[in-house]
Structures are given as structure tokens and as C-alpha cells.
Amino acid sequence: MGMSLDAAVSVLTRAVELDQAQSYSEALVCYQEGLTLLMNVLKDTTDDTQKVHYRAKMESYIERAEKLKKLVREQQEAGTFHEKINIKEESTGYSYRRVFEKYLEGNVQEVVVEDPYIRNIHQIYNFLRFCELLVRKGTVRNVKLLTTQDEDPESQNNQVKRLQGLKTSLKKHNINLEIGFSQTLHDREIRFNNGWVIKIGRGLDYFKPPPGKFCVGFCDFDLRECHETVIDIYLKKA
């Protein structure tokens, strides 16, 4: 039970930290995960005094989680929702699935990606991983990419060849990829047609390279260390 309790305390402590930082959506997820873990601890507890203590803690966290649900819903309905995620240097747990999946709610059919650095091979691999998330979603039918090109003709050819290969692959999954280039593009932004807008300081290129091919985090990007960056999330009313 000790390890289960430690896990519950760790997740709920993280929930409180995110709550205080006004990262309400992330905090809500952690509250829910932590409460599930704490419920399992309660089931395994035989001491009546501890049971009373755990129940009181759970009631407190449940009450706060319900208030957050209401607050987030009100902000979304008013079109004032804005959340900030601060990714610290060398932190983990920020795969594209963890960051983006909850905003792909409903019947999302179109995604716009504006990122000046989908040029080098590792950056195109990042974009591929993001597209794989959209494939798993199952409703997306159109992806628009706007990026830049290197001045070197060979680099341009390699970039176009790789993106065209991805376009062909996505077509097999009933997704059309539109590729555009702008040499004046600077800002990084991802937009879903359900109203969510995600702005990432480093764009999709916020993962650190792994120290080797046989290291934890090479395949599982939830375990991959990140560069420091900030993610701003908005909901625009239709």
C-alpha cells in the first residue's frame, strides 16, 4: 500500500501545484487520476482512523475538482478561456498525446499547423508523430501545414520529398495534407476547427534528442526530456 499511497500523494500534489498556477485543465486531470489512486488506497486500508482521514481528503479534492470543472466550463462558454503550460528544461510527460488529445474533442475535421521549423528531418518526424495522433482521432480529414524552407536547394528538395511522402501516406487514411511555404512566417500556432488554438513557443520541436538509440525515451515521448518552452491554449467562440 505504501507505493500506492506515494503515487496518490505525488499526483495530488502535482494537481495542487497546477491549480495554483491556474493550469486548470491539467490540474483537473491530475485531481481525477489522484482520486482514483487514493480510492484504491482506501479500499486496501483496514485501519478505521486512516479510513476517516482518506475519506476527508477525498471529499476535499472532489469539491475542488467540481469547482474547477464549473470554472473551466464557464470560461469556455464565455470565450475567455486561456491556459498556460510551462514546460521546464529536461522535464518529461509532454508527448503530443498528453498535450493535444484532450483538445481534439468532438468532430474535429480540420487542423491548421503554422510552424516555421518543419524543415529538418527530425522536425518532419515530429510533424509525422503529430499527424499520427490525428489519424488515431479518426475524424480529421484535412491538415494544412504552413512552414518555411532553407535557402539550400538540396535541403529544399529533401524537405519537399519527405513531406510529399507523408502526404501520400496520410491519403491512405483519408486525410488530405495541404503544404504551403512562407519565408516570412515566424509565429507558431496550431488550430483545430472546434475552436481550440494552441501556441507553443518552440512549435512542435520541443523535445531534446535522446543521448542514444538504446535509452529510455527514444520511442516513448512521454519519457523524452523536453526543452524549456511555454504552451498557451485558447478557445475561440464560433
Automatic annotation (TrEMBL):
Coiled-coil region list: 51-78
Occurrences of domain MIT (ranges): 1-79
Keywords: Coiled coil
PANTHER family per UniProt: MIT DOMAIN-CONTAINING PROTEIN 1 (PTHR21222)
Any Pfam family hit: MIT
Record's protein name: MIT domain-containing protein 1
Species this protein is from: Stylophora pistillata
Keyword Mitochondrion tagged: no
SMART domains: MIT
Gene3D superfamilies according to UniProt: MITD, C-terminal phospholipase D-like domain, Phosphotransferase system, lactose/cellobiose-type IIA subunit
Native organism taxonomy: Eukaryota, Metazoa, Cnidaria, Anthozoa, Hexacorallia
Residues of the signal peptide: none
